[in-house]
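>> Question from a student workshop board

For tomorrow's exercise we were told to take the sequence and the ligand below, predict the bound structure, and bring the output to class. My setup keeps failing. Could a helper post the expected result so I can at least see what it should look like? The ligand is iron/sulfur cluster.
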Amino acid sequence: MNVYFHTFGCKANQYDTALVRQAFVDQGIVVVDDPDAADLAVVNSCTVTHESEAKLGRLVRRLARHSGRLETVVMGCAAALDDGRIASLPSVRAVVGGAAPAQVLEAAGFAAPLSAASPPVSLSSRSHPLSPSPFGRGGTTGRFRGLLKIQDGCDEHCTFCATTIARGANRSRGIPELVAEATALAEHHAEIVLTGIHIGTYGQDRERGAGSGTARSLGELLEALISAVPSMRFRLSSIEATEVDDTIAHLLIEAPAQLAAHLHAPLQSGANRILKRMGRHWYTAESYRARLEWLAERLPVFGLGADIIAGFPGESDAEHRETVALVDALPFTYLHVFPYSERPGAAAGRLGERVPPVAIRERARELRETGEAKARAYRARRQGERGDGVVCGRQAGQVEALTEDYLSVYLPTDQWNGRPRFEVTVR
Ligand code: SF4
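>> Workshop helper replied:
Here is what the output should look like for this input. Compare the format with yours to find the bug.
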């Protein structure tokens, strides 16, 4: 039996897929990169946008067309919310909500193991799933970036998001097991990305006594990881700006070799009334701006990204302008802009006051252009400066290195010293 894996969505999904893949390998099942050589496909789905689910449908249909014998198991967030649409796609054998390896194995027709340990997980390229690198994913990279999933789920109920429904409440892993996993990853990796669904709330469930262990905050976890593996560069995946506490801020400023100077801080809107409608009660445009300006003043090199939703229900033109003004004011180095799309089960669909599609498209276009201009300006400013590069891709005579501030730098393989982490010149 040959199995092909495909992952949509965030780094938490990539981590989940790697665990499922390992469970298949442990059963002696062969994992293949080419769907044409596969008997079974396991597709890890994402529900974050309408587009991600449309892509899932297209992939499953394509797999069914390409190979008459191939069956597909769909797992993950969109699978958890399936109303029958995914199950009725051609050649779908099973739909498994969530990412439990034993359930996916069973759905594929294999006996589940008694317990599945967490193996170290590699990121096979730099690419954020929403902004693919030119090398694509799963290239021939020497896997020098690893993933460490520190928590799953979320206790918030943002009205545009179905993730909480799909993944459940915040569940944090204990510091000892995370330190052990990071130590194992350090054998073959130069960077570890801390990932999860709402990582800024790491440890809060344990504080309330929902689990065992001593973890209380993300800052405390970072300190433990850095002291256990001081040679490693850690990087935070998406984190709420106002959840960057003083411990994390101090590490970003004082320990740049251990914690990459890069934050991806979801903004979603720069208008407080819209943030309220989104259910994002823990910050305002002012508190978001204040936290990031404070950090930017102290970080001469600082990669800063954000997610923004264009055309959320009820968003007026003036409120869109507030978002554009906030984006202009802050030193973003890239943006991920999402035209609003209704997610099944998410409360925003019941809010009314839909923004006309043409206005949603226009607002998204304006925000994207603003983000692209800021990205170009930041890169131009960094041109010729030194960066702390970690190899994240290697193909066609070129090496791709990712700097601390999330810039890709390409250089000919014969100019590479062969080390996973090395100083690069931004060009
Ligand atoms: S914080 Fe909001 S957007 Fe993020 S996972 Fe939780 S509910 Fe979804």
